[in-house]
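Chapter summary example.
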Amino acid sequence: MYENPMGRVKADMKTFDTHHLITCRGGFHLVKSHYKRCFPCLPGYYSEPNSINCSLCNIGYYQEHYGKHECDKCDEGRTTETMGAKTKEECVSQANTGIFNTFKKGIAALFRG
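The structure predicted for these 113 residues follows.
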């Protein structure tokens, strides 16, 4: 099996059968329904090279740009409340997160009207 340096075509040197492979760089994902093109991941998502899907940024990370291969980590002592954060502003103090804090905010909002 021969593979060219760009990794886009593989050929079986015995049968001369070729297999065209479309690969996407990190931050992009393969969309087969669009003529097998690579599209950038949206903000809040990232992908490794050769990915078919983009993944949500984990809790504690955010991604503000299109087409990135990794998410940015929130500053020390800060985290996000959900996965897929799109801005640094979604990083909040770790003291203000968690299910009990969310519950407490909900109850307080009921009494404020």
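To summarize the output: The first helix runs from residue 99 to 112.
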